[in-house]
Amino acid sequence: QVQLQESGPGLVKPSQTLSLTCTVSGGSISSNNYYWSWIRQPAGKGLEWIGRIYASGSTNYNPSLKSRVTLSVHTSKNQFSLKLSSVTAADTAVYYCARGSLRSWYIFDCWGQGSLVTVSS
Amino acid sequence: QSALTQPRSVSGSPGQSVTISCTGTSSDVGGYNYVSWYQQYPGKAPKLMVYDVNKRPSGVPDRFSGSKSGNTASLTISGLQAEDEADYYCCSYAGTYTLFFGTGTEVTV
Question: Which residues pair with A117 in a beta bridge?
């Protein structure tokens, strides 16, 4: 059974870059059957899709965040990563990594437990 | 267009049915049969309950059913149980690399 686990700093200063990594276990990120996404949720609020990456490194981003987001994949480590630049307090949220199928990338059938990132000086 | 509109909360007694609505536009909910629903307990990750409007992943009880009419999708929970008390979010595909989630609904049993 595939499991996802986010990791990274829980506190980031304003204007700096937020960096998170998602480690995939129980399956290969290079299986070519899935897209790997990042989704965030500010406290007490709804969910927002950030972007997705394929094992080949091909990426697509939410247009509203595209200018600040970079996703990358590290197949040898079975990991993929998120970088969000020029963060502000509005970027404070729980960040989830999730899996979507190749045919239906927008259906997330497996999620990490989430990683809280606070933007504060 | 941003978040899809859901009622803030719905409630029901054990055994009853509740329905959660999810209202969008012809560019998202109304334009595609790609609406999914997620259940989320406090402090936990969302769990997929319904996809493609009315399909259930294996392991999800058939008490959970989805439907759509025009620009509004709905999730119905029949035979409400205490364990169904959670937040529920709808999600709709809205075109290339565009995905909208709902505002979320708290279900109280």
Answer: A93
**Contacts for B41 with CB less than 8 Å, ≥ 6 apart:** B86, B87
- What is d(CA A71, CA A83) in angstroms, rounded to the nearest whole number? 6
Q: Is A44 on the interface with B (CB under 8 A)?
A: no
Cβ distance of B51 and A107 shorter than 8 Å: yes
Amino acid at B100: F
Write the single-letter amino acid at B102. Answer: G
Decide: B7 and B107 in contact? Cβ < 8 Å: no
pLDDT by position in tens, chain A (length 121): 899 999 999 999 999 999 999 999 999 998 778 999 999 999 988 999 999 999 999 999 999 999 999 999 999 999 999 999 999 999 999 999 999 988 888 999 999 999 999 999 9
**Chain A hits for B46, Cβ within 8 Å:** 47, 96, 108, 111
Beta carbons of B95 and B25 less than 8 angstroms apart: no
CB A98 within 8 A of CB A4: yes
Inform me whether the C-beta atom of residue A61 falls under 8 Å from chain B C-beta atoms: yes
Q: Residue A74 is which amino acid?
A: H
- Which A residues in the span 84-113 are in contact with B, Cβ-Cβ below 8 Å? 96, 104, 106-109, 111-113
